[in-house]
Design brief:
The protein has one domain: Porin (Beta Barrel), CATH 2.40.160. 16% of the residues lie in helices and 57% in strands. Strand 8 and strand 9 form a beta hairpin.
């Protein structure tokens, strides 16, 4: 993944301008902090071209929100997750072309990639629906990601005694991405709420790097 800022400068300028205008024009009728924790699933579409057996991975986020006006807030989130992808092409290649039989258990375990990531998101959130019980937010901002890929695989050696070794190297990548989010919250009482969030991270190549979905629990103070 490329680490170019694409349109992030424009987005940053627009976001700062929005904060300034909204802070001046709207009466600050509420100033409230909230923390939330979400656990759900995530998928990484950028890896679909490499693997044909893809499964939803884990996604976790811990967020702190500050409402600086009735409908406007900023949110800082710590995100983490893991995906495991497997390609049947590697299995076909191994069983068809290699001069040695590789056990199916080895193929199932090692012809895959384990992709884990952590990151921070800074979002501007707008409350598009605000009732006594239900609130809906949209969010846009930045996401920084540190990704570790373990491309597990099998390397074959040809010769008088054919053999193979298991490859366990890894790569580390860092990037800044565009973050999008949609949230719905249901108020239980003055302190507690539950909700659902969905979102996506778009990389500098304008590809969807990650989309995620998770139920949340929120505490306000």
């Amino acid at each position: 993944m490329k680490n170019t800022p694409f349109n992030l400068i424009v987005i940053l300028f627009t976001t700062v301008l929005l904060f300034s205008i909204l802070s001046i024009c709207e009466a600050q009728t509420t100033k409230r902090f909230a923390v939330s924790f979400s656990v759900g699933g995530a998928q990484r579409p950028i890896y679909f071209r490499h693997y044909d057996k893809v499964h939803i991975g884990s996604f976790y986020t811990l967020s702190a929100d500050y409402a600086f006006a009735q409908r406007h807030s900023i949110s800082l989130s710590i995100n983490a997750g893991k995906n495991n992808y497997f390609t049947s092409y590697a299995e076909k290649y191994a069983t068809t072309f290699l001069p040695i039989a590789i056990p199916a258990s080895v193929l199932d375990e090692y012809n895959s990639s384990i992709i884990s990531y952590t990151g921070l998101s800074l979002l501007y959130k707008y409350r598009v629906l605000n009732t006594n019980k239900i609130s809906i937010f949209t969010g846009i901002g930045f996401h920084t990601i540190r990704e570790v890929v373990h491309p597990l695989g099998i390397t074959a050696y040809y010769g008088a005694t054919p053999s193979y070794v298991i490859r366990t190297d890894r790569s580390i990548d860092n990037a800044i991405m565009l973050a999008l989010r949609l949230e719905m919250q249901y108020k239980l009482n003055d302190k507690w709420a539950v909700g659902i969030l969905g979102g996506a991270f778009i990389n500098p190549s304008n590809e969807i790097d990650n989309y995620h979905f998770a139920p949340s629990i929120i505490y306000k103070f």
